[in-house]
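Following the same procedure, backbone shapes were mapped to integers, yielding the entry below.
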Amino acid sequence: SLTEINNEDELSLQHEARIKESSIYLNEQHCSATS
């Protein structure tokens, strides 16, 4: 159904956002650790 497809899109978008956030966080941790 359409709502299921929309939910799938929502989940994948949230997942991508979470991955971006965690990679940014890890980059910041790495930068502060090396400085």
Q: What stands out?
A: The chain has a mean pLDDT of 90. The two ends are 52 Å apart (CA to CA).
